[in-house]
Prior knowledge:
Blueprint: E1 7-8, E2 26-27, H1 41-87, E3 98-99, E4 106-107, H2 110-141, H3 144-158, H4 162-176, H5 178-188, H6 204-228, H7 232-240
Parallel strand pairs: 1-2
Antiparallel strand pairs: 3-4
Helix pairs in contact: 2-3, 2-6, 3-6, 4-6
Amino acid sequence: MDEPECAVVSTAPSAQGPDTRGPHSSSLVRQPPMPSTPPGGKLDRRTRRRGDAIFRMLAQGSGALLLVIMAAIAVFLVLQAIPALNADTTSFLTTLKWAPDGTPSSFGIAALAFGSVLTSLLALLISVPVAVGVALATSHYAPRWLARLLAYVVDLLAAVPSVVFGLWGLTYLVPNIIAPSTFLNHYLGFIPLFASNGTYGKSIFAASVVLAVMAIPIISAISREVFIQTPREQIEAAWAIGATNGR
């Protein structure tokens, strides 16, 4: 019985020798197999691996060099500070008095450290509620076009260097905060934040306001990203049990 006609498309040469099928079988033109690795593939992979290795060495070297520079700066500062620390007649860590030119000299960082910590805490007390409110407004309440505009402004302010805020506070805020500081001290002087011994302008309150203005964009930008990344299912579930956008 004759074998029915069929067309066989082969993409690879047969491993069993020449085709021995009957005369009624037809075979299309065989196509050569596609190489598993293109010409020059090994060389390209080697080049990429060599480039990756060079980049890795440069990145690691840059990081190590940065650490070495920072360590060298720290060592230099400590060595230069040893004579001054030896000349100090009091405890450097617990002394509140700062009189390096006195006789005998007396200076410590206790007052400076306390002022820094107090200023930072007051700045957080001022900035966190405002920043979280701005983040909620841009992520849940404001229209899309207004939220996009506010987000651009907040991100732009977050990128401003801190020295710019410091100069703004020194040249503009301090001269214009004297009247509000006097008013707050007169009526709310029982609160430590607004209390003053007669010195207005360059005070803990002014420094706290400058730090708060500097921290508001950063806290707001981070909080906005957190609110946006909240899964929609969790938001709807919270709404289902009576929650609101602000709670």
